[in-house]
Amino acid sequence: MNRQNILLRIWKFYISGFKNMSNWGRQVWLIILVKLFIMFVILRIFFFPDFLKSNFDTDKERSEHVLDVLTKSK
């Protein structure tokens, strides 16, 4: 019985799947990866700046602000 690491077996499973995938499937995966890159990298950098890092200097100040906002009653 072959006892490879579970992560290595999963990695080989996906590599084998991508190698045997049709050209159409590879193009779709490329489009998906480009969209994910745009969503998580480009949009985050330009449209969602780190509010807490830019407005507060220490972790304690950040945590107090978050606690105040979360526990503020309306």
Structural class: mainly alpha
Average pLDDT: 89
Number of domains: 1
Helix residue percentage: over 70%
β-strand amount: under 5%
Q: How would you portray this structure in words?
A:
There is one protein chain. This protein has 74 residues and is mainly alpha-helical. The chain has one domain (6-72). The chain is 77% helix and 0% strand. The protein contains 4 helices and no strands. The protein has helices at residues 6-19, 23-47, 51-55, 59-71. Keywords: Membrane, Transmembrane, Transmembrane helix. Pfam families: DUF4492.
Structure, briefly:
Keywords: Membrane, Transmembrane, Transmembrane helix. This protein has 74 residues and is an all-alpha fold.
Give the helices and strands, then pairings.
Elements: H1 6-19, H2 23-47, H3 51-55, H4 59-71
Keywords for this structure?
77% helix, 0% strand, elongated, transmembrane, DUF4492 domain-containing protein, transmembrane helix
